[in-house]
Amino acid sequence: MSNILVVDDEKVLGESIKDALASEGYEVKIASNGQIGFDLISSEPFDLIILDVMMPEINGIDLCKKVREINVLTPILFLTVNNDPEDRILGLEAGGDDYLGKPFHLKELLLRTRKLIQRTQWYARTNDSFAFEDIYIDFSSYQIESWDKKIYNLTQKEAMILKLLIENEGATVSREDILEKIWGYESYPSTRTIDNFIVRLRKRIERNPEQPTHLHTIRGVGYKFTKNPLENNDPEL
């Protein structure tokens, strides 16, 4: 049974969300402000955090940053009345996973909740490690030991993208498929986001990131991972 924390200073809304989630079989706790939320997140594990942006004590964006700073990788779903693209990007760059504007339908909240938890469960179910050439990836600790023997830490999203490409070794995975699998397509306004993640991943596993031999760009479509080095004829992004 999944355990969810709702951090929202609107008592009526918080109780409504709790009742809706409980009716689907989730265990739910409520925090009435950001500081209480941070204390709970620091002391016990959750499968999902539903986080209001405008709150006293600590606002949602700052709370999300604090949570990521202590290496809590629990998925975070933002709730906010500010739903324009720039605000969405701000929240997601702070470490959020999805963004739902107020007012919203509880059915949509339940759908996004289910998808976020399913994505986390997918990551947990698959292989914990992967090795190729002189590179070792530990997905459980979010680390790469690269060909140069350096240890690199991965963000959760970097690790999930890399795992998705490795699972589909030799096949092209579109940018849209990556967004849907890792974030949920609505979370970001542009698939260019994926390109930026690939650039960072190449710096960790490619001997020459400008001429990648494992993470290949498939022009106009997406990306492909190959375990054995192959020449990539496409220019860098």
Just name the CATH architecture of the largest domain: 3-Layer(aba) Sandwich
How many strand segments? Answer: 12
Span from first to last CA?
42 Å
Question: How many strands, which pairing sense, and closed or not: the largest β-sheet?
Answer: 5 strands, parallel
Which band does the percent of strand residues land in? 15-25%
- Compute the gyration radius: what is it? 19 Å
| Sequence of secondary-structure elements | EHEHEHEHEHEEEEHEHHEE
Global mean pLDDT:
88
Major sheet strand order? 2-1-3-4-5
What is the count of structural domains?
Answer: 2
| Share of helix, binned | 40-55%
- CATH topology grouping of the largest domain: Rossmann fold
Structural class: alpha/beta
Principal-axis shape:
elongated
Number of helices: 8
CATH class of the largest domain: Alpha Beta
Low-confidence stretches: none
CATH superfamily of the largest domain: Response regulator
Question: How would you portray this structure in words?
Answer:
- The protein is of the alpha/beta class and 237 residues long.
- The protein has helices at 11-23, 34-43, 60-69, 85-93, 106-125, 156-167, 175-182, 192-205; strands spanning 3-7, 27-31, 48-52, 76-80, 98-101, 129-132, 135-138, 143-145, 151-153, 173-174, 215-218, 222-225.
- Helix content is 41%, strand content 20%.
- The protein has a five-stranded parallel β-sheet, with helices on both faces.
- It is built from eight helices and twelve strands.
- The mean pLDDT is 88.
- The protein has two domains: 3-124, Response regulator (Rossmann fold); 127-225, Winged helix-like DNA-binding domain superfamily/Winged helix DNA-binding domain (Arc Repressor Mutant, subunit A, Orthogonal Bundle).
- The longest helix is centred in the middle third of the chain and has 20 residues, at 106-125.
